[in-house]
Amino acid sequence: MKNIDTYTFSGKKALIRVDFNVPLNAEHIITDDTRIRAAIPTIKKVLSGGGSVILMSHLGRPKDGPANKYSLKHIVAHLGQLLNTSVKFAEDCIGEKATSAAAGLLPGEVLLLENLRFHKQEEAGTEEFAKQLASLGDVYINDAFGTAHRAHASTTIVAHFFPEEKMFGYVMSGELNSIDKVLKNAERPFTAIMGGAKVSGKISIITNLMDKVDNIIIGGGMSYTFAKALGGKVGSSLVEDDRIQTALEILKTAKEKGVNIYIPNDSVCGDKFDNAANKLTCLTNEIPDGYMGLDIGPEAEKEYASVIENSKTILWNGPMGVFEMSSFESGTKAVALAVAAATAKGAYSLVGGGDSVAAVNQFNLADKVSYVSTGGGALLEYMEGIELPGVKAIRA
Ligand code: AMP
Prior knowledge:
By secondary structure, the protein is an alpha/beta fold. The protein has 2 domains: 13-169, Phosphoglycerate kinase, N-terminal domain (Rossmann fold), CATH 3.40.50; 186-383, Phosphoglycerate kinase, N-terminal domain (Rossmann fold). The chain has 14 helices and 17 strands. The strands form 4 sheets. The chain has a 6-stranded parallel sheet, sandwiched between helices.
């Protein structure tokens, strides 16, 4: 496998799949440029090595071909500022406009192609479309971890046309190294913190982690399916009745494998799903009718913090409660602080999956954990043990 750090880019055109799927407001102004910033080191590496750069990405979910709202032209000026160079733009990602723009690129120049998803063939993973993209560059770099779980033309199929000249960019290798450190080389004790709304979305991850971890901490809405499975009274908390059996099986497997599973002993409940709800703190298995568990309680906070602070490897996915509401943010904050404290003592901590990332940002702790994944769905699939097509295509 080729490596971006040792590859000679001089005179080469690098076709880079980036993730520029950033939020834009009604005036097409970028409201969060994190993903664009993340791609800068990879782009600069190629440029400083004497190569030129052809960037391809999707933006949003265009349904029927080109639409101004989803045009990547809105990104050009800001990308130019971040790179401190002018960025050329091709109004289509294949065809005459793309080929002539790519052909005319000089070393040190950057070209951004129009939204890949203006063509249905992108998501369909069409061979012919991928071949046309491939014809633009001499070397292919995949730096879009967020779409690595999709076998799309630009993320996976295109790599087949670069049997030797293909590699990961820095975003991809950073994400993969971090997850592999946790899933393959974890220093013990290893604690997985699983939260969020539902058990159903997390079953495969919990199952895959069962052979690797020492502790699984459960929080968020899924706690109440576990509590009910154990015979508890959970009031009107979020419960997936069709997952009660699954919850019992998870508890049984954990026991067999010697994994400690923690369910919150107490909960902060509300009489409605509202920040201004009447609040009540009680045992998780004794929630009165008319109340729902919306956060882990103070006892659970203490117990969880102690387990986390005694861990050497931590994987955190999903909030402990409805942290978007200040009345129910305390448990998630306590866990975030414990993860930061463990990290300060030398533990390796990976935070990933949309809402836990939002949580560490909300509490200004993103730089106090070892790695914050931008992966979302791709990270979840990787944690389930699935080989991501975009990763496999480079490693093959
Ligand atoms: P997920 O996408 O499954 O990780 O779920 C994240 C969402 O779960 C967040 O928006 C939280 O507000 C929500 N959540 C966390 N705890 C609870 C709870 N006890 N009841 C209902 N929703 C919750």
